[in-house]
UniProtKB/TrEMBL annotation:
HAMAP family according to UniProt: NADHX_dehydratase, NADHX_epimerase
Keyword Lyase: yes
Function, as annotated: Bifunctional enzyme that catalyzes the epimerization of the S- and R-forms of NAD(P)HX and the dehydration of the S-form of NAD(P)HX at the expense of ADP, which is converted to AMP. This allows the repair of both epimers of NAD(P)HX, a damaged form of NAD(P)H that is a result of enzymatic or heat-dependent hydration. Catalyzes the dehydration of the S-form of NAD(P)HX at the expense of ADP, which is converted to AMP. Together with NAD(P)HX epimerase, which catalyzes the epimerization of the S- and R-forms, the enzyme allows the repair of both epimers of NAD(P)HX, a damaged form of NAD(P)H that is a result of enzymatic or heat-dependent hydration.
Keywords for this protein: ATP-binding, Isomerase, Lyase, Metal-binding, Multifunctional enzyme, NAD, NADP, Nucleotide-binding, Potassium
Residues holding AMP: K411, G412, A413, H414, T415, G439
NCBIfam families: yjeF_cterm (TIGR00196), yjeF_nterm (TIGR00197)
Binding residue positions for K(+): N59, D126, S162
Family membership noted in the UniProt record: In the N-terminal section; belongs to the NnrE/AIBP family.
Residues annotated as binding (6S)-NADPHX: 58-62, 130-136, 159, 262, 325, 376, 440
Natural source organism: Sediminicola luteus
Cofactor note: Binds 1 potassium ion per subunit.
Record SUPFAM superfamilies: Ribokinase-like, YjeF N-terminal domain-like
Listed name of the protein: Bifunctional NAD(P)H-hydrate repair enzyme
Length: 513
């Protein structure tokens, strides 16, 4: 699903008005009627007090229309207009008049006015600012926003939580509404998925307001949301006359004394993702545990007992997963440099291999093009330097990926894969996955898909989806706290099967049949 900038949404608005031959007022009516239908179907006429806090732009206009529909259906409403500017939008004014015609007199709030009392059992509709916010609200408006946040009432935000910018980071945390639920028009917004801004939308939902499809399809978007619909068309079925050679040979290089388990997890995940063959390259101390824990994997040992010291092997792997549990000893750093100097096989680089590379930036040029780097936030910072906010992080990461022609994964609650100026935002996964070794599992999964012939970018985005889905399916059985990396591996098979699990609304399955 595409994610649009504010500018693109305004363009979509305009082209909808032209191509569907409607007025902007009719579009607002359509959008706000959807808000009403959502709320009405849940409240069913309940006598709860609904406070609508409206701005003076089109987000406020949506609030005005909603107020009218609620009143017509007998709801107990209070309409408050936060008069933060003289420049009232036409559609706001039109709908304000319609309210007045129905004898509803809004309470106009200015800089020195007393704020209405809100009980915690009430509902707040937040329609103060939408995607038009272009500077931090004035201090007195921030006080209004704080009043809403402090009320402990349920807050339903229209389009986005008021106070958030769509395309940049907020400057003042107090200026943002903390929404319990956001009803966002037409498409999800990037801010829902970034750690700094995502916290203001506890839950969000999209309302399809029928914006011009042709325009939206033609837009060149930077970010895309990845769900089942996006990954399913990439799935490669197993061929009847195939053999294990068809599905590639993965080599997992890593491990050190006390961290052999990381390689076991990655190798196991790689096999479960469908790699035809998996070989682990580890220090000698790992030989017996590895062979015992994972009989399906082959093992090549380094000459060193406790760490990787000289990477030599006589196999021809399709892809190499590198760095899990490898440590940062000088001997290993030397081995890595020597290996990168001659290696031409695509790499998936994780953990301490990333840390070694961060300390020796000259190694970066030796990495084959379109290899994959999977840092968690700390590793990313070592790699690309610090950032002021999430937007700067994305820009720096995109530039880094372009400079070295690498696929860069930013791991987190919504893992984002960056390549060639584009970003792919994952939708699966849960906080139970914040557990030791879950990153090792991901490295094994990405490696396993590349081995099977998926191009590196698709393999990465697809593996991240499957990894999160495995975690989601596992958590249903064991709960968040008990979820371990091994459990994620146990559910990889189910995550694949789930791709073909036809449920209501899962469109692409129908296309497959
Ligand atoms: N295509 C869509 O998605 C539709 C959008 N609609 C609504 O329209 C909204 C956007 O409306 P607007 O563009 O009028 O913008 P907003 O209603 O978000 O903001 C109002 C105006 O206030 C001014 N402003 C910005 N920051 C300010 C600040 N800190 N202090 C004082 N004034 C400030 C700006 O001039 C801005 O246009 C959307 O979020 C959505 O709710 C709907 O009405 C219908 C269709
Ligand atoms: N709150 C969360 N929600 C969803 N996924 C998460 C969350 N926390 C962590 N993860 C996922 O778990 C993995 C953790 O990777 P990493 O930090 O490298 O772990 P480790 O080093 O222990 O293997 C990443 O894929 C990340 O996206
Ligand atoms: K809002």
């Amino acid at each position: 699903m595409k994610i649009f900038t504010a500018q693109q949404i305004y363009e979509a608005d305009k082209s909808t008005i032209v191509n569907q031959q409607i007025t902007s007022d009719e579009l607002m009516e359509r959008a706000a009627t959807q808000l009403f239908t959502w709320l009405h179907s849940r409240l069913q006429g309940a006598p709860v007090k609904i406070h609508l806090f409206c701005g003076i732009g089109n987000n406020g206009g949506d609030g005005m229309v909603l107020a009218r529909h609620l009143q017509e259906h007998g709801y107990l409403i209070g309409v408050h207009v936060v008069t933060y500017s003289e420049k009232r939008s036409q559609d706001f004014l039109l709908n304000l008049d319609r309210l007045k015609e129905r004898k509803i007199w809004p309470n106009f709030i200015g800089p020195n006015d007393e704020l209405p009392k809100i009980d915690k059992e009430d509902i707040i509709v937040d329609a103060i600012f939408g995607i038009g916010l272009n500077r931090t609200p004035d201090d007195w408006v921030i006080k209004v926003i704080q009043h809403l946040n402090n009320s402990r009432a349920f807050i339903l935000s229209v389009d986005i939580p008021s106070g958030l910018f769509v395309d940049k980071a907020p400057k003042n945390e107090d200026s943002i509404v903390r929404a319990n639920h956001v009803l966002s028009f037409q498409a999800p917004k990037l801010i829902f998925f970034l750690p700094q801004t995502g916290i203001y939308s506890n839950q969000w939902e999209i309302l399809d307001i029928g914006l011009d499809r042709d325009y939206l399809n033609s837009v060149d978007n930077v970010y895309e949301l990845i769900g089942k619909n996006e990954v399913l068309p990439w799935y490669k079925p197993r061929e009847k006359f195939s053999h294990k050679g068809t599905y590639g040979h993965s080599l997992i290089i890593g491990g050190s004394y006390g961290k052999i388990g990381a390689v076991i997890l990655a190798s196991d995940a790689c096999l479960n993702t469908g790699s035809g063959l998996v070989t682990a390259y580890i220090p000698t101390c790992g030989y017996i545990p590895m062979q015992t824990a994972l009989p399906e994997a082959m093992v090549i040992t380094d000459t060193n007992e406790k760490m990787v010291s000289d990477i030599q092997f006589d196999i021809t792997p399709t892809v190499i997963g590198l760095g899990i549990g490898i440590g940062q000893d000088n001997i290993t750093t030397g081995a890595l440099k020597e290996f990168l100097r001659t290696n031409k096989t695509p790499l998936v680089i994780d953990a301490d291999a990333l840390n070694i590379i961060s300390k020796n930036k000259e190694f970066l040029k030796m990495i084959p093009a379109q290899s994959v780097l999977t840092p968690h936030p700390k590793e990313l910072e070592r790699l690309i330097g610090s950032w002021q906010d999430d937007f700067e992080k994305l820009d720096k990461a995109k530039a880094f990926s372009k400079q070295y022609d690498l696929i860069l994964v930013i791991k987190g609650a919504h893992t984002i894969t960056l390549y060639n100026g584009k970003g792919y935002i994952n939708t699966t996964g849960n906080p139970g996955m914040a557990t030791a070794g879950s990153g090792d599992v991901l490295t094994g999964m990405i490696t396993g898909l590349i081995a099977q012939g998926y191009d590196s970018l698709r393999a990465t985005v697809f593996a991240i989806y499957l990894h999160g889905r495995s975690g989601d399916l596992a958590v249903e059985q064991c709960g968040y706290q008990a979820l371990t990396a091994s459990e994620i591996i146990d559910f990889i098979g189910d995550a694949f099967l789930d791709l073909f699990n036809v449920q209501e609304g899962s469109g692409p399955q129908e296309e497959m049949e």
